[in-house]
Amino acid sequence: MKDTIPLGRFAGVRIGLHWSVAGIVALVAVGLGVYWLPVAFPGHAPVAYALGGAVSAVLLVCSVLAHELAHSVVARRNGVVVEGITLWLLGGVARLRGEARTAGADFRIAVVGPASSAVLALVFGVGGWMAVRLGADELIVAVLGYLAVLNAVVAVFNLVPAAPLDGGRVLRSALWALTGDRFRAAVWSAWAGRGFGFLLIVAGLAEVLGRSTGGLWLVLVGLFIVNMASAEERQARIGVALAGISVGDVMSSPVETVEARQSVEQFFRDAVVSHRHSAFPVLDEHGQLRGLVTLQHLREVPVEVRGGTALGQVACPVEKIAVAEPGEPLALVLPRMTQTSRGRILVCSAGELRGIISPSDVARVLSDHSLTATLPAGADLTWEPETRPPPSDWWFPGQQRPR
Ligand SMILES: [Zn+2]
């Protein structure tokens, strides 16, 4: 989900809209403004219904945003980097980089989403009750009631103990705390997720056969959950297979480095023949790390400018390189490989460069564990984005629409 319209930052978190969010806004606005409100509360001006529908749609999207922000803020407090939030057709996604370090953090990051939806349901509910007491227009009461019910539905639905729903994360954290094995816990909660997804598909198809188009939404959400749960299971299985293997076990060490001042032409003429690797940390004259170059990218430098181009100029800058410590579990640092287009992880400890991990190092370990089939072919391992489990949330538009 990359094609997003940036909305700016809130509480330090980047927020974007995927174009598909327009579909859900339209569905809610039309569902309420054209169908439900005029039928349930006749006698108002058409513009009042349209306004009610539009305000409901916008506040619903804001509610989902609040839910995702809650995940994001708690994730950051627990040391997990948040890439941003994307709002789309089926709700929202808070994209987290990396995983919680403890079962407790995993639990907190997951449970705060439904908790915030429950609080919103309460706020809208109390607002509706006060609107009644103050004798406000019935359309205002209806909109507040709709938002209270929908936020309650979001809270309850996302608490179903099935990955990738928040409840699946809660289940995973509980199993993790009980067994001490985060990856096995993730496999089990992914199984629950697949089962729940299939259940939704069957329920949706039954509704469609009963001539209700609402079933199509269930089928769509069910398919999505099955897909996400399967991807999570694949990743968790890699984690199970790599249990006990640390970064230090697979890294190439010592690391072959190159000098930032050296030209690309000189590099190809003198050095590349003697080097066995395909990626090289770039050091300045003081021995400080300045970046990383790969053969693949150096070959893209046009031959005629290679003489006048220093390695330091074309290196991937330090802040964009993924870094790990030798003692970290390999399975946990693998997702970091996609953070840079270079696909390498530098291993440092106490500020010193200790080693480097390339996709082929990882592929070798995985093949030792008969896991080659789960990886794409080719030298560069591209960690599929969908194998990184973002907390995802779903909600049902038009729940309140009359049948
Ligand atoms: Zn959530």
UniProtKB/TrEMBL annotation:
Key words of the record: CBS domain, Cell membrane, Hydrolase, Membrane, Metal-binding, Metalloprotease, Protease, Repeat, Transmembrane, Transmembrane helix, Zinc
One Gene Ontology cellular component: plasma membrane
Cofactor note: Binds 1 zinc ion per subunit.
Domain CBS: 251-311, 317-374
Cofactor entry: Zn(2+)
GO biological process: proteolysis
Residues at which Zn(2+) binds: 67, 71, 166
Entry's Gene Ontology molecular function annotations: metal ion binding; metallopeptidase activity
Subcellular location: Cell membrane
Pfam families in the cross-refs: CBS, Peptidase_M50
Membrane topology designation: Multi-pass membrane protein
PROSITE patterns documented for this protein: CBS
Region (Disordered): 377-403
Active site as annotated: 68
Transmembrane segments: 21-41, 47-66, 109-132, 139-165, 185-206, 213-231
Family: Belongs to the peptidase M50B family.
Identification of the protein by name: Zinc metalloprotease
Species: Saccharopolyspora shandongensis
